[in-house]
Amino acid sequence: MYVAVKGGEKAIDNAHALMRTQRRGDSAIAELSVDQIRQQLPLAVDRIMNEGSVYDPELAALALKQASGDAVEAIFLLRAYRTTLPRFGYSEPLDTEQMQVERRISGTFKDLPGGQILGSTYDYTHRLLDFSLLASGEAEVAPKEANALSEALAAGNSCPRVLELLNKEGLIEQSRENGEGDQTPRDLTREPIDYPAERGVRLQNLIRGDEGFLLSLSYASMRGYGDSHPFSGEMRTGCVSVELVPEELGFPIEVGEVLLTESEMVNQFQGSKDHPPQFTRGYGIAFGRAERKAMSVALVERALRADELGEEVLYPTQDQEFVLPHTDCVSANGFVSHLKLPHYVDFQSELEMIRRLRKEQRAGDEGMIEKEQEADV
Amino acid sequence: MSTATGYNFAYLDEQSKRMIRRAILKGVAIPGYQVPFGGREMPLPHGWGTGGMQVTASVIGEADKLKVIDQGADDTTNAVSIRRFFAHTAGVETTEQTAEATLIQTRHRIPERPLKANQILIYQVPIPEPLRFIEPRESETRKMHALSEYGAMQVKLYEDVARFGHIATSYDYPVMVNNRYMMDPSPIPKFDNPKMSMMPALQLFGAGFEKRIYAVPPFTRVESLDFDDHPFEVQSWEEACAICGSDHSFLDEVITDDNGSKMFVCSDTDYCGDRVAQGFVGSAADLPIAEMETEQ
Predict the structure, then answer these.
(1) B220, B27 in Cβ contact below 8 A?
(2) What are the residue boundaries of the structural domains of chain A, listed by start?
(3) What is the spatial distance between Cα A30 and Cα A371, in angstroms, rounded to a whole number?
(4) Contact A357 B126 (CB under 8 A)
(5) Active-site pick, B49, B52, B208, B266
(6) What residues of chain B lie within 8 A of the CB of A352, using their CB?
(7) Is the ipTM of this complex over 0.90?
(8) Fewest CB within 10 angstroms: A66, A87, A313, B59, which?
(9) What is the domain extent for residue B278?
(10) Non-local CB neighbours of B118 within 8 Å, separated by 6+ positions
(11) Which of A40-54, A125-139, A266-280 tops mean pLDDT?
């Protein structure tokens, strides 16, 4: 047993060599390339980018390969790389109205300016295993056909947001106060979070958050633990250009584009003494094609606004000190897995304590029995 | 000196180190107060010593000699891993000898050998908030600290006394620092608590994912919470170390066969080895297991 903790250095090296062999699998089968992962497992790559907080499909694919397909491990690898990157500056706010939309769904209006675009989706597929993929056959490829929206966008027209249509009528809350300018959000990877956290920080935290945990929280809030059962006002996916103002130029230049999924939820709100009834907003955005993530963020984000909207905070889904620190899969995984580390000393302390308490209780019981026996005599 | 290519000395960039050193200075100025800092993501998992590593990375210099222990031992796998990290990224000299080290990063123990004024002890802290299991909300516990409102902890300890006849906390035992802030000593056994008080060495505490740093400056009073009629007491063993015969150090219990036979050995491997070198022997000195230990 002492052997287990001695010679740690050699054991670590051997364990890592074994892991690399296991990752490679049967060497008679061709090795997976990072390009293949990037091209053929794009949804996994998108998740790594979202929770890794870096838009870099190539590095995300590399991380996924290095992590043997374990998403949480891959996210950790990407985060540990991200933390060493210098900051050049902050981009201008992205304008998602200018998105080159490839998919756009509204659950609130049958038709709307810009139209509904189904795009590429797993929705409505019958979940039947496609055995032709197993036989390494090629799947049917979609015919290339431009949609009306893309054409309109290419012509320089923007695609208005559904929620802005409601806003024109005053039916939904403003997303910002009159005259309120853009704010540079605080970066929670550089500054510690301070409770209560402002909305920008909360959103940032959620977008880095574990997709599964957020999905479950949104599910819970929809089932009554948080009173959030909204309409999906709009969900859109497409590329948006990123602009940066270099100090030496003083005007914005385009530095690239990112594929984003944006979700805007429309929630009920009863109104109060000062405010007439009005819909409220829940917002979510994510890198890549990540609808589940964007919608979950929007749902949880709205649930966390309970306090500021004067709703009663009754459930964990509405409590930011419960939700925010526990969404991070890297932290959660680290802390849960640290139980694998030795705790001999603490456990020894507990053993000593529990043995002493049991001994005292036994002695006490025996004392009682003696007393009873004396009383009987 | 060999350092990792592509990374700054001791991994973190100098700006981050400066930010962390500012937090440390504030911590030293307000003993026991938890200073929020911009904790960086580290290439080790949270809960595995990222807070301690960030503190070590920020105070380590080329001339330092680093010792890393986990459960008192230098060769537990995580201690090996962290020591290697700094040997690799900072190229500093490492040691297993408490007396030789200028920096000691530790998880769950304070070395048995008393520390000196030119040493810094850096604790890895998982949960820095002593009140966390009484009040999970940060916004509340901060108020409790600001107002020195520590009655809830006394009540918890009293409930132990009422239920078990003892304060049943055996590690992570809360302390008062400099008569002002209640502090979590990290999950060291309460056996080690008295060593914290009036220690000539600087004690720094880093909690990575909670993003908090705190400190106990040299020669600061650190008192373990107790009651007049239930004074604080440390663990004691009826056994002595099977290798070095010590009857006054913290002992780990080792199960030696399928019938649950056990022996006790020092958790501080350097201390145990020193005693063996000085000629002390324990009851198991003739067993092969003890020879393995002394070979180190």
Answers:
(1) no
(2) 8-82, 96-329
(3) 80
(4) no
(5) B266
(6) 170, 235, 237
(7) no
(8) A87
(9) 251-295
(10) B102, B201
(11) A40-54
